[in-house]
């Protein structure tokens, strides 16, 4: 609620430009300010930690952390597969959870991919999209980055439905903090070069990121299908 | 070694390219083959240039740029990326923008593809959006990786009588759409002044051409 209040408070300040309205980004100025804030957090807190992470943990260890975190998300992915009516993908998520949690030793290894069951992502934001919900205006959330009302709602629902968040409160705080910390490290370690590339090639980094986010989410919602649809003519 | 279907496609493409102006009149399946062969042949040529260790940096850049500009319909892409400002900008500014975009695109494409010189691209099929508009699907395979191959799509138009590349997508993210959003946002913040965008693009092209 605090985050929503912060975002909405900023929304009321500056009138939106015609370009911002055309880009379904009526809160553009607030979003740009939030991107700058996130960039500072990234520069002064996240990137130095990622550097230490790279120094201390070898590539195999980082891959293990990535696999472990991915395995923790599988119950949520399974539920969203089911809610979207994707039974085949739900079956794959279930098998991945069973195989990687056991043979893969708590998910640190990914034997399921080796036998032809690769991972895929799903979340409640995508489920809402499949059910027909529109994305709404573009938002940059503090700490979380690019989003929209649909995906922000999905993030909250996914957090609430995650079974690992049902752990009793004393341990839960440490568990949740540790998991979020390593999720952030893993994400930043995985995307470091990509983000650098976008920054280097961009005329306007903010709108580049906005477009990447929207195209990326649409691709996730389509599950890679019907990619040739909805392209403009030129 | 590339699968034999690609060899067959290449031979077919050679035959068909001799009759390129007739491409629009070809049956859909043959036109799709022209688009697939066009991508298959030329992407491999591009990757070979980027991999060629006998070339120095300047030679590599020049050869890649020559190949690229022969394949890509730069003017069409440039005009698309200007969005609504294409209609309001003075014609001389539009022409200058197309030229600046050409230099930027050559540097940007080279920067993108230079990352993938160890990988191989395999054409896996195509989708016809219209009789002259195709999406050619490829897989970017990284040797010795347990990650699934990345999907790279190429949009090929044949309405000018010969196949030309107008867009490329990595994992479903189209480059021209992203560029249009950036340029329109930039112009929106600079009173629609295309000359400001030209200056910025030119500076960016110089920076992109520098080794990382």
Would you write up a description of this structure?
The complex is a heterodimer of chains A (234) and B (212). Chain A is globular. The N terminus of chain A is likely disordered. In chain A, strands 1-2 form a two-stranded antiparallel ribbon. The longest helix of chain A has 33 residues. Chain A is mostly helical. By secondary structure, chain B is of the alpha+beta class. Helix content of chain B is 56%, strand content 17%. Chain B has a five-stranded antiparallel beta sheet with strand order 1-2-3-4-5. In chain B, a hairpin with a 2-residue loop joins strand 1 and strand 2. In chain B, helix 1 packs across helix 2 and helix 2 packs antiparallel against helix 3. The longest helix of chain B is centred in the first third of the chain and has 24 residues. Chain B is globular and about 50 Å long. The two termini of chain B are 31 Å apart. The interface between A and B is large, with 34 and 41 residues.
């Amino acid at each position: 609620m605090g985050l929503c209040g912060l975002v909405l408070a900023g929304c009321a300040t500056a009138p939106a430009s015609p370009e911002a309205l055309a880009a379904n980004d009526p809160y553009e100025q607030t979003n740009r300010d939030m991107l700058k804030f996130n960039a500072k957090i990234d520069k002064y807190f996240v990137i130095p930690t990622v550097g230490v992470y790279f120094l201390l943990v070898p590539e195999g260890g980082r891959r293990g952390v990535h696999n472990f975190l991915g395995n923790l998300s599988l119950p949520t992915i399974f539920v969203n597969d089911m809610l979207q009516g994707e039974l085949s993908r739900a079956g794959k998520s279930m098998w991945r959870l069973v195989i990687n949690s056991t043979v893969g030793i708590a998910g640190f290894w990914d034997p399921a991919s080796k036998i032809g069951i690769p991972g895929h992502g799903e979340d409640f934001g995508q489920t809402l999209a499949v059910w027909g919900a529109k994305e709404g205006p573009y938002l940059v959330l503090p700490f979380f980055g690019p989003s929209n009302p649909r995906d922000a709602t999905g993030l909250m629902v996914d957090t609430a439905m995650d079974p690992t968040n049902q752990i009793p409160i004393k341990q839960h705080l440490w568990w949740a903090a540790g998991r979020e910390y390593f999720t952030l490290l893993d994400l930043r370690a995985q995307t470091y070069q990509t983000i650098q590339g976008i920054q280097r090639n961009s005329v306007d980094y903010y709108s580049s990121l906005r477009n990447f986010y929207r195209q990326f989410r649409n691709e996730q919602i389509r599950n890679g299908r019907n990619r040739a649809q909805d392209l403009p003519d030129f | 070694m590339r699968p034999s279907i690609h060899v067959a496609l290449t031979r077919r493409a050679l035959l068909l390219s001799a009759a390129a102006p007739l491409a629009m009149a070809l049956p859909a399946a043959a036109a799709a083959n022209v688009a697939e062969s066009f991508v298959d042949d030329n992407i491999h040529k591009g990757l070979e240039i980027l991999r060629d260790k006998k070339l120095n940096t300047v030679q590599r850049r020049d050869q890649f740029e020559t190949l690229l500009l022969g394949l890509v319909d730069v003017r069409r892409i440039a005009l698309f990326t200007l969005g609504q400002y294409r209609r309001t900008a003075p014609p001389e500014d539009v022409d200058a923008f197309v030229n600046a975009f050409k230099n930027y695109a050559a540097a940007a494409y080279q920067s993108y593809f230079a990352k993938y010189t160890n990988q191989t691209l395999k054409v896996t099929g195509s989708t016809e959006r219209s009789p002259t508009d195709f999406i050619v699907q490829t897989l970017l395979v990284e040797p010795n990786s347990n990650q699934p191959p990345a999907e790279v799509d190429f949009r090929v138009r044949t309405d000018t009588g010969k196949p030309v590349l107008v867009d490329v997508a990595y994992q479903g993210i189209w480059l021209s759409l992203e560029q249009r959003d950036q340029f329109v946002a930039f112009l929106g913040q600079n009173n629609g002044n295309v000359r400001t965008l030209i200056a910025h693009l030119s500076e960016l092209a110089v920076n992109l051409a520098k080794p990382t």
